[in-house]
Amino acid sequence: MQQLFDAVLAGVRTPEDIANTPLPQHYRAVTLHREDVGMFADQDSADKDPRKSVHIDEVPVPELGPGEALVAVMAGAINYNTVWSALFEPLPTFDFLTRYGRTSALAARHDLPYHVIGSDLAGVVLRTGDGVTAWHPGDEVVAHCLSVELEAADGHNDTMLDPAQRIWGYETNFGGLAELALVKSNQLMPKAPHLTWEEAASPGLVNSTAYRQLVSGNGAAMKLGDSVLIWGAAGGLGSFATQLVLAAGATPICVVSSPDKARICRAMGAQAIIDRTAEGFRFWSDGHQNYRESKRFGRYVRELTGGDDVDIVFEHPGRETFGTSVLVARRGGSIVTCASTSGFVHEYDNRYLWMSLKRIIGSHFANYREAWEANRLIAKGRIHPTVSVVYPLTETAQGILDVRRNTHQGKVAIRCLAPAEGLGVRDTALRERHLAAINRFRADPATGNDEGGPR
Q1: Tens-place pLDDT, residues 405-425
Q2: Quick check: 130 and 63 in contact, CB under 8 A?
Q3: Where is the Enoyl reductase (ER) domain (predicted)?
Q4: What's the rounded Cα separation, in Å, for the pair 320 and 340?
């Protein structure tokens, strides 16, 4: 591993240098163990601690198959599917691996007693399998998390509709929270040259997801002048949604949970902000939705929009907010939903939907083209990473807990092979032009400094 580490980090390297460096037999990875699946069986969801289920193991390097790539992972990131994985909710990910393993001899590699998790990475291509022509050893890349076979007709207009569509690192093995990762080569995209490894690793899943939800015709098809209500606007998904809305010439109405998160939304350029904690909104009481509170929330929104209901609701908390989201969308408006981090069973009063001709749009990650377009916006400096804290690989469990408890802002990144923060920048001029925006989620709340800086 040290020889490979030295080759990857070399200031000047050629494809031959990487290709001729021997691969190790094992690598360090963040794993879950099949034998631990029942460890939280008697606990309420809120009491489950992911630090108890997450391991750092030395695992064998997987066999490289046709159309695949082995990547040296410089950095990864935490997503909410990482939280679900570590809690074995809503079901253990080993169920996904077993089903996948039954599909082919090659897929059987994924059905193991351990699961290497993680659905984001930035790194360096080490090897490519048969049939791969677009990528070569030494290429600096990021990976989107759509793993799909494309053998069925269903996926050829929209790869997210392929019946064999899976999320890499969640429904497949060999994910990105590790020193090495195995991906399909069509998951790879160019790393933004002005970003560090940890910055480049962080947008993949959430930026692509927000792009499909809002910008794509497969989602809400947002247009110039639209107003968009964004729940959790300073979080992993919401921070990219806020940026996309602003970049499109639409108006975000940002819902946050603290003054510090409100400050970050203002730093991104948003003006209409609701601190739901400060305003004391409680959409549920005694197990039932409180529509008086939802209507009070709707009045608050209209005060910020000049009297209009919102065109689009960017919905991802799920159970806690969904009934309110349906209520506050304008007549003929859209509620575009994914994730459901507060609960998967949604309730809403259908009169507010059917009688006002609103639409609920289900959205899940992004297809190849949407992921590529979302990544291109990062590379051009139109959309920026939202890293607030970086942990080493050995402290990944703490990063998962941060996201679980919503104590973070933006994204939590993980250093894998990168020995320190700040490495991997190739275009310093572009970086300098956007440095304040790149660092704004690291701004010190105590100073109110919107220019950002390390924390």
Answers
A1: 988 899 999 999 999 999 999
A2: no
A3: 49-414
A4: 9
